[in-house]
Design brief:
Layout lengths: L2 H19 L7 H16 L4 H25 L4 H15 L2 H16 L3 H7 L13 H48 L11 H25 L3 H11 L8 H12 L6 E4 L2 E4 L13 H40 L14
Helix pairs in contact: 1-4, 1-7, 1-11, 2-3, 2-7, 3-7, 4-7, 5-6, 5-7, 5-11, 7-8, 7-10, 7-11, 8-9, 8-10, 8-11, 9-10
């Protein structure tokens, strides 16, 4: 079976598994990677970019190496290859858990229980929930759903289309390292620099595809594209900016503004200024948009992989020339 078809079948089964099952309650591979990365950090930590780069190389490189070994071990079996791709896809995407957590916060807000909403918010983002009122929490949830649609689903599918199982695993490893050490705390300002920059690089294509698909699937393509073009560059993150701006325009809401991380106040630029303030019901709308974007991303990734493989095959065949010449008929002599 061709590698592009292995990816197509495996990624589809893996994403379906996430939609039906979500993340496992115990023994999640990403959690195991996080524990291993934490052990490496305790051994290597120095307040220095070089040691942080070594941490990134050891952790991300180790994860990719294991994925390469696993992929090679099943290369002679199409069925095993599809199963491995499906398992890797299911392990690295997290769209269902994202939607579940967002809806839990939205349900608490709808019931008027802001304290429960504050307790649940850290499952989605690192903001200080005590500094937020109900509207601020709703806005934080919508922004997190937008950003994590790219980080938890679309980016992984894009890199899976590029590099199969190693691409899936590598993207999730880098994204997890960024979440662990890439923030600008005192401990990680230098040590996490390499992880944060690498995450910016690998997240670039998935973020742009997410922004495009949000415009397509959100019901207001013009508003999404307008907000993306006008406001994405104002965001401090090169990848969160396009995604959040496109979601804001697609949903017709206003994102950005003042927020707080662990007591540190940040004043983010407003995204889609003409939009209205986020309401509780917009959380459900954002989750539904995220789901549509995820399904479209699967189709786009599979189609892109199939198209590239077909083009490469056609070019290779055309440059190779005819594989066999016509037989030569010997003439009779009189």
């Amino acid at each position: 079976m061709r590698a592009d078809r292995v990816f197509a079948y495996g990624a589809a089964v893996g994403l379906l598994g996430d939609l039906l099952l979500g993340d496992p309650r115990r023994g999640h591979p990403v959690a195991a990677f996080g524990r291993a990365a934490g052990t490496v950090e305790r051994a290597l930590w120095r307040d220095h970019r070089g040691w942080g780069a070594l941490h990134t190389a050891v952790c991300a490189g180790g994860a990719v190496s294991l994925a390469v070994a696993a992929r090679r071990s099943v290369r002679t079996s199409p069925v095993a290859s599809v199963v491995l791709t499906a398992a890797a896809t299911w392990a690295v995407v997290g769209g269902t858990s994202l939607g579940r957590e967002a809806r839990a916060v939205g349900g608490a807000l709808a019931a008027g229980d802001i304290e429960v909403a504050r307790e649940r918010l850290p499952h989605l983002c690192g903001r200080d929930p005590q500094a937020l009122d109900a509207d601020g929490i709703a806005r934080a949830v919508v922004e997190s759903v937008a950003e994590n649609t790219s980080d938890a689903v679309v980016g992984a599918l894009v890199w899976g289309a590029v590099a199969d199982v190693p691409g899936l695993v590598g993207f999730r490893a880098v994204n997890t390292l960024d979440a662990m050490v890439g923030h600008k705390s005192t401990r990680h300002r230098r040590y996490g620099w390499a992880s944060a920059r690498l995450d910016d690089v690998v997240g670039w294509p998935g973020a742009r595809l997410t922004a495009v698909l949000a415009a397509v699937a959100g019901g207001n393509p013009r508003g999404a594209v307008t907000a993306w073009r006008a406001d994405a560059g104002k965001h401090p993150s090169p990848n969160a900016g396009p995604v959040e701006a496109s979601f804001a325009g697609a949903l017709g809401v206003r994102l950005g503004g003042t927020l707080s991380y662990a007591g540190r106040v940040e004043h983010r630029p407003v995204l889609n200024g003409p939009g209205r303030a986020v309401r509780v019901e917009d959380i459900e709308r954002a989750v539904r948009l995220s789901r549509r974007v995820s399904l479209l991303a699967l189709g786009a990734s599979v189609a892109g992989r199939l198209l590239v493989t077909s083009l490469v095959t056609s070019l290779t065949t055309s440059h190779a020339g005819p594989l066999a010449k016509s037989p030569v008929t010997k003439g009779r002599t009189s």
